[in-house]
Amino acid sequence: MDCSELTKINTVDLWFLTLPKPHKNIEDLSSTVAIDHSYLINQARPLLNEEELAKAMRYRQPLARMHAIYIRAFLRVTLSRYARVRPNEWCFEYGEKGKPYLCRAQRQQTSLVFNLSHSGDQVLLAVTQTADQKIELGVDIECEREDLSFNTIMDNYFQPQEIESLMRLDLADQRRRFFDLWVLKESYIKATGLGLAQPLKSFGFGFSSSKKQHLSLFDEKQVSAQPLELITGIVLNTLNDKAAKDEDWSKQAEGQMWSTCLGRLSSSYRFGLMVKGRKLDISSIYARKVSIENLLNR
Fold this sequence. Notes:
Distance between the termini: 10 Å
Number of strands: 14
Number of helices: 9
Shape: globular
Strand order of the largest sheet: 4-5-1-14-9
Oligomer: single chain
Largest sheet: 5 strands, mixed
Radius of gyration: 20 Å
């Protein structure tokens, strides 16, 4: 797959990577990593810079170190699909709250904007090209946890309208909606670059106009896999107006500047996508899944 086959202006590419797990019934995790992944780790390490390698090696668990190396290699190799830049040549800058960007020279050279998220054994990378547009892009992927008591969290971080809509659902759907809202909130603060400096209760999402669609997911051979559920038409509310109704949020000028999508990768994992400065529909989002083995042996 060369650069011409990838994202065009006004589209967003979503790349999904499943990280390898240790084999069951093997107590020594370091042996698992050494036996199964030494070759791939040796392929990945030269792609990273010294800072990335040092950060990966600070993890105490061998599996966490391996995953950290793979995630950075995944980012670098995938970006190189879009431009004639070698994986080890990418350089990054960071915003005030830690949001990563390409360095200024490479942003001007490639017009690429990206955002990366990791939860459990799943990694999601979003990539788009901006041309002369100012784009803010954020993604998050989360695993639904059955052991999480969400009521206290919800009271502290959700808007009243979000809580009211959630509480009208049955118990199982309440848990699903909680994680849906949470992944969207994380996506939004990643897109703005403000992180948790932006209170999660200062904005919310309404589902009254949302609709479910199916997004094609392609493997590395461009074969269509099981389609993903994608929910579009979700409305962003940035006003702390307790009296405002869900259906009124779409009239806000700030909310109209954002495209909001919620997807389900599996029964356990969902992902959020937020883009400011571009209107997205399902025809402008492309989803691909890759393996670390094929990624590093390209």
